[in-house]
Amino acid sequence: MSETDFISDDRIDAVLEGGPADIPSASRRHRVRPDHDRIKVPHRGGYEHFERAVDTGSGTAAPVVYRWVTRTRIAE
Fold it and tell me: Which top-level group of life is the source organism from (predicted)?
């Protein structure tokens, strides 16, 4: 098993909800470390910020949901 395999095995599927409607579908799916509480996505000269939704504890393999919370501009 390579180091890359180990890193990818440690990650979980995440899906982003909310925010601008024109964020591409591919940008709404991520693989993140289980301890990630936030995801920052570059979009239209800024960043869209998403925070992890409260776990439901369902025990399923469904992706973890991150909900949009704010937008910031890229510092120049």
Answer: Bacteria
- Give the tens place of pLDDT for each residue, 12-57: 999 999 999 999 999 999 999 999 999 999 999 999 999 999 875 5
| Number of domain units in the chain | 1
Q: Which domain holds residue 12?
A: 3-73
With beta carbons less than 8 A apart as the criterion, state whether 66 and 52 touch. Answer: yes
